[in-house]
Write a structure and sequence with these properties.
mainly alpha; 13 helices
Length: 339
């Protein structure tokens, strides 16, 4: 190395520096090839390379969420075309209450209370981050998908893609249903005290209530997907689900009574009713899957056998396999379970 630094024109410092610069470039190209599904379809990497890939994917996901949070922070005050501002959407259920039950402040017929100096900023930031996570969900879900899929087979990738797509649809559907239920839930909650109370909600409490209700409905609506997945992998059979139906429906109503933040009968009943319908749908999907699986097993000869009937399995020892012909009728040899 010392000789290289003193050689001058033949192999001087310029050559050493150029080689040092070329080596990281080659390593970066090799790393990109390993991340490429075309050049590395099975996703073979070392542990360190997997950790670096995870760091890279997480960085991209966090950048996407940060951009979405900035967009949500701006959206809070400004609408987008015909789409109202995020603040208007959040305060919409509260503004739908009768004016006789709400406190009005001068030129603000529908306004939430700010009881702390930075409460408005924290609420705007919190809602902006939540909106950013939802808006940029395709971006960070893609990063998660790109990290996981190299280790999956083609059929598993297709199945996982279906699972993720259904999960997003169910979560969004639950959140939309919760948003539609909030006005009725607030109307019930604010009228419990009769004419002795006037509603003046603090911003933090109200926004926390809305976000919690949206998250609970969205997460709860993943129940049928979990049941279908467990049925697909053989953990829960349709017959078990059928025998447990009444107990599970009862537990769904108990679950809805405990998790709804307002403890009002409207949101509790809607959540329990929606979960019951989705559960029944998952049960019927499991029934169709189990029937199809039973027909396939019967056609293959695995089911429908008597206890003392010979199994259609073919078992050959090592010496028999060595002299066995290339093509052999699998039904010619059969052994019972005792053998």
């Amino acid at each position: 190395m010392a000789d290289g630094l003193t050689d001058g024109p033949r192999g001087g410092p310029e050559t050493g520096i150029a080689g040092a610069r070329a080596q990281p470039a080659e390593e970066r190209r090799a790393a990109r090839r390993r991340r490429s599904r075309r050049h590395n379809p099975d996703g073979t990497m070392t542990v360190v390379e997997h950790l670096l890939e995870l760091r890279r994917r997480l960085a991209f996901a966090l950048v996407a969420v940060a951009i979405g949070a900035i967009a949500g922070f701006v959206w809070w005050q400004h609408g987008i075309g015909s789409i109202p501002s995020l603040g208007t959407l959040i305060s919409g259920p509260y503004c739908s209450l009768p004016s006789s039950t709400r406190v009005t402040f001068g030129n603000h017929p529908c306004a939430l209370l700010q009881t702390k100096p930075f409460e408005g900023f924290s609420i705007r930031l919190k809602v902006g981050v939540a909106a950013g996570v939802v808006l940029t969900s395709p971006a960070w879900l893609y990063q998660l998908w790109a990290f996981i899929t190299p280790g999956l087979y083609k059929g598993e990738r297709r199945f996982a893609l279906t699972f993720v797509s259904c999960a997003v649809i169910l979560f969004v559907g639950g959140a939309v249903l919760a948003y539609l239920v909030v006005p009725e839930a607030l109307r019930v909650l604010t009228n419990v005290g009769g004419n002795q109370f006037v509603t003046a909600l603090a911003g933090t409490d109200y926004v926390s209530f809305i976000l919690a209700l949206l998250a609970i409905f969205g997460a709860s609506f993943e129940l049928p997907l979990v049941i279908v997945m467990l049925n697909r992998i053989g953990v829960i059979k349709y017959e078990k689900l059928k025998s447990w139906r009444r107990g599970i429906v009862f537990l769904l109503f108990v679950f809805a009574a405990f998790v709804t933040p307002g403890q009002d009968p409207i949101s509790m009943s809607v959540l329990a009713g929606g979960l019951t319908i989705l559960f029944e749908l998952a049960v019927q999907v499991s029934r169709v899957h189990d029937k199809r699986l039973a027909r396939r097993r019967l056609a293959e000869g695995w089911d429908g056998l008597e206890d003392d009937q010979a199994s259609p399995l073919e078992y050959l020892g090592e010496s028999e396999r060595a002299v066995a012909p290339p093509v052999r009728d699998t039904r010619s040899i059969s052994y019972d379970d005792a053998t």
